[in-house]
TrEMBL record:
<comment type="similarity">
    <text>Belongs to the leucine-binding protein family.</text>
</comment>
<feature type="domain" description="Leucine-binding protein">
    <location>
        <begin position="23"/>
        <end position="354"/>
    </location>
</feature>
<keyword id="KW-0813">Transport</keyword>
<dbReference type="InterPro" id="IPR000709">
    <property type="entry name" value="Leu_Ile_Val-bd"/>
</dbReference>
<keyword id="KW-0029">Amino-acid transport</keyword>
<dbReference type="Pfam" id="PF13458">
    <property type="entry name" value="Peripla_BP_6"/>
</dbReference>
<feature type="signal peptide">
    <location>
        <begin position="1"/>
        <end position="20"/>
    </location>
</feature>
<protein>
    <recommendedName>
        <fullName>Leucine-binding protein domain-containing protein</fullName>
    </recommendedName>
</protein>
<dbReference type="InterPro" id="IPR028082">
    <property type="entry name" value="Peripla_BP_I"/>
</dbReference>
<dbReference type="GO" id="GO:0006865">
    <property type="term" value="P:amino acid transport"/>
</dbReference>
<dbReference type="InterPro" id="IPR028081">
    <property type="entry name" value="Leu-bd"/>
</dbReference>
<keyword id="KW-0732">Signal</keyword>
<dbReference type="InterPro" id="IPR051010">
    <property type="entry name" value="BCAA_transport"/>
</dbReference>
Length: 386
């Protein structure tokens, strides 16, 4: 009986090893806790919808996908620890993180260990400029948001002066730099450029100063809580330019609409994906993301993260699970997704070359309505009467 028992044991061991190897693991790092947790929840929903979709179609090369998701707690050091943990588990690619301040050092670490990083939401220009051969960004960089907004302002016409206020972090500084160059080039006089530190809750002294300057355009770049506070305090101070605009991030969240309520009405908000975009499958993606969020409205961050998983899976399908071969496969990515096309181009860093035009939405009736560019618009801009 012992030989039979031995053979049985070997068979069970063989089955166990095969089961252990039956999934392909993809790593991800995002903010499931801390100040960016709302964005992390959006990313997690995007990850889940993509993994479920791919596995329902048979996975990748006959193997199911498994997401190893780590919480960076909105902290750079914890993100680096999380990435190290994933690298030690031999993942062929990592997706992450949310914020630019966390993602840039994360990309530098991933380059040192030679494992590709897919950036899904962080927009700081310097992540991919100059960048490195192991970082690939699915979403667009900050200048796309700012340039798209300014192009839309020029089309609207009749405006010549602007003020800019951003958060004092990697994201905000990137937007401030872009706006400082692009606004004057478009014929605008910049009356004020300011940043504020994390923790500031009373913006009224700044807003009152802007009111005295009487700008045509006010541009904000802020995270979640600050975006809501700014909208409410704009109303309180009576600051009334022709256009108030929010550059993505906190302004692009459904929670901005809920938190700011009627004070958000008519804000222009730049983003790269909205529920009303005309990409094939976008409607279905919106529905699935909303289900994954328990009925909450999905933001562009969820759609971006969905596309990042598809890009990772596509590279693994073509290159296998060796990180270097995945990196090489990412260079040849050509995907059409419900988020939009994904094709990386190396111009001082691997950037999705199709993510070069931002959507301009306006809050109308408590919803984001796409008003630009014309090829994507489902509505028209509404401006206050002079």
């Amino acid at each position: 009986m012992r030989p039979i028992q031995t053979l049985t044991a070997l068979a069970l061991l063989s089955f166990s090893l095969a089961s252990a190897q039956s999934t392909i693991k993809i790593g991800a790092v995002t903010s499931l806790s801390g100040r960016f947790a709302t964005f992390g929840a959006m990313q997690q929903a995007g990850f889940k919808v993509a993994i479920d979709e791919l596995n329902a179609k048979g996975g990748v090369n006959g193997q199911k996908l498994e997401l190893l998701l780590e919480d960076d707690a909105s902290d750079t050091n914890k993100a680096l620890n999380a990435a190290e943990k994933l690298v030690n588990q031999k993942v062929p690619v990592v997706i992450g993180a949310y914020s630019s301040g966390v993602t840039k050092p994360l990309s530098q670490y991933m380059a040192r260990v030679k494992v590709p990083l897919l950036v899904a939401t962080a927009i700081d220009e310097t992540i991919t400029k100059p960048g490195n051969p192991y970082t690939f960004r699915v979403n667009n960089q900050s200048s796309v948001y700012t340039r798209s907004l300014i192009n839309e302002l020029k089309k609207i016409g009749g405006m010549k002066t602007a003020v800019v206020l951003t958060s004092n972090d990697a994201f905000g500084k990137s937007v401030l730099t872009d706006a400082g160059k692009l606004l004057p080039a478009a014929g605008f006089t910049v009356l004020s450029k300011d940043t504020y530190d994390k923790g500031l809750t009373d913006f009224r002294p700044l807003l009152n100063r802007y009111k005295g300057q009487n700008p045509d355009v006010v541009i904000f770049a802020s995270y979640e809580e600050d975006a809501v506070a700014l909208a409410k305090q704009v109303k309180e101070t009576g600051l009334a330019p022709r256009v108030i605009a929010g550059i993505a991030t906190g302004f692009a969240l459904p929670d901005f609409l809920k938190g700011a309520g009627s004070t958000a009405e008519n804000f222009l908000v730049t983003m790269v994906w909205n529920a009303d975009v005309k990409y094939p499958g976008a409607g279905s993606l919106y529905t699935r993301l909303k289900t994954a969020l328990g009925g909450e409205e999905p933001s562009q961050h969820a759609a971006q993260s969905y596309a990042a998983v598809l890009a990772a899976a596509d590279a693994i399908k073509r290159g296998g699970t060796d990180p270097e071969k995945v990196r090489a496969a990412l260079e040849g990515t050509k995907l059409n997704t419900a988020f939009g096309p994904v094709t990386f181009r190396d111009y001082a860093g691997y950037q999705n070359q199709n993510s070069v035009v931002g959507l301009i939405t306006q809050v109308q009736g408590g919803k984001f309505v796409t008003i630009g560019p014309a090829s994507a618009a489902t509505g028209k801009v509404v401006l206050p009467k002079k």
